[in-house]
Specification:
Layout: E1 2-7, H1 11-20, E2 26-31, E3 39-43, E4 46-50, E5 53-55, E6 66-69, H2 76-86, E7 92-96, H3 102-106, E8 115-121, E9 124-128, E10 131-134, E11 139-143, H4 146-154, E12 161-165, H5 168-181, H6 183-188, H7 198-217, H8 226-236, H9 244-250, H10 257-271, H11 276-289
Parallel strand pairs: 1-2, 1-6, 2-5, 3-10, 6-7, 7-8, 11-12
Antiparallel strand pairs: 3-4, 8-11, 9-10
Helix pairs in contact: 5-7, 5-8, 7-8, 7-10, 10-11
Length: about 290
């Protein structure tokens, strides 16, 4: 039986935990700060429930086959004590997060050959502890190779489209373009429907254009119309959909701003590419949160 530990049951992590817990051939432990009674996931096709094993401390745990790290990018320190206990010489560590710096975050703590970067694209929310809402099934991508195939196999019976890709860098930067535009939601404190405003949509497109320029310099293959695609995606979806950046700002929590927009500014500077729109929105959101 494959043993799995999931660290960080937020909106994305909790959704994945609920799906993994449907399989009887997986031994799942969910690592939490505050325990909850069970997982309840609202999906497009009805409710999914599960009661996986919960752990509130690394004490008493031992290395597993897979560790899935779904903590926010700013909360890597919270994963460190769990990794010390759960990671053995052959443990694969899947880093499930926004941004394009999956490997950098765990360099020196996890052997590079055992680290699997994961890009997720499905809207998920956490209305309360142990309660999650997945508005569409979406997709997950991991780099091609044995580790990527093994990760995808964990979700073989899941309605989410989980697959490997030969061009992970392009997938990661395309998703980052979507994330970058989401800063407008956090800035305006309005959900996805704000994209129907012409001015807000233009700011989104500008943020995405800078992301595309930097992504191409990093080696990603990105089309010229990504900005239009992002805005149309926002407009086509539920107008009340809340992304994690908006949810965190509205709740007074830290934001993944550096992983979503700050990285565009930092990597842009390294390539000599100006990113004034992303720099401005990072500065304003940081000031608002300060």
């Amino acid at each position: 039986m494959t043993t799995i530990a999931l660290i960080g049951p937020g909106a994305i992590g909790g959704t994945l935990a609920a799906w993994l817990a449907q399989r009887s051939d997986l031994d799942l432990t969910v690592c939490v700060r505050t325990p909850f009674e069970r997982l309840v996931l609202e999906t497009p096709d009805g409710e999914v429930t599960a009661s996986p094993r919960l752990a509130t401390s690394p004490e008493g745990l031992s290395p597993v086959d897979w560790v899935l790290v779904a903590t926010k990018a700013y909360d890597d320190a919270a994963a460190a004590p769990w990794l010390k206990t759960l990671v053995g010489p052959n443990t694969k560590v899947a880093v499930i997060r926004n941004g394009v710096e999956h490997r950098e975050a765990f360099a020196g703590r996890v052997a590079d050959e055992n680290l699997v970067p994961v890009i997720v694209d499905f809207p998920a929310e956490r209305p309360g502890p142990g309660v999650f809402r997945q508005r569409r099934y979406g997709w997950i991508r991991v780099p091609a190779g044995a580790n990527g195939e093994a990760f995808a196999a964990l979700f073989a019976d899941c309605p989410i489209d989980v697959a490997t890709t030969d061009d992970f860098i392009s997938v990661a930067w395309r998703k980052l373009a979507l994330n970058a535009a989401g800063a407008v939601n956090a800035m305006t404190l309005k959900p996805s429907g704000v994209a129907r405003d012409r001015g807000a949509a233009q700011v989104m497109k500008t943020l995405v254009a800078e992301c595309v320029a930097v992504g191409r310099a990093e080696g990603a293959t990105l089309s010229d119309d990504i900005g239009e695609q992002v805005v149309e995606g926002y407009r086509a979806g539920p107008p009340d959909m809340v992304n994690s950046l908006l949810a965190d700002r509205a709740a007074g929590r830290p934001m993944e701003l550096d992983a979503r927009n700050g990285v565009i500014v930092r990597k842009g500077a390294a390539h000599g590419i100006a990113t004034p729109a992303n720099a401005m929105i990072v500065a304003l959101l940081n000031a608002a949160a300060g």
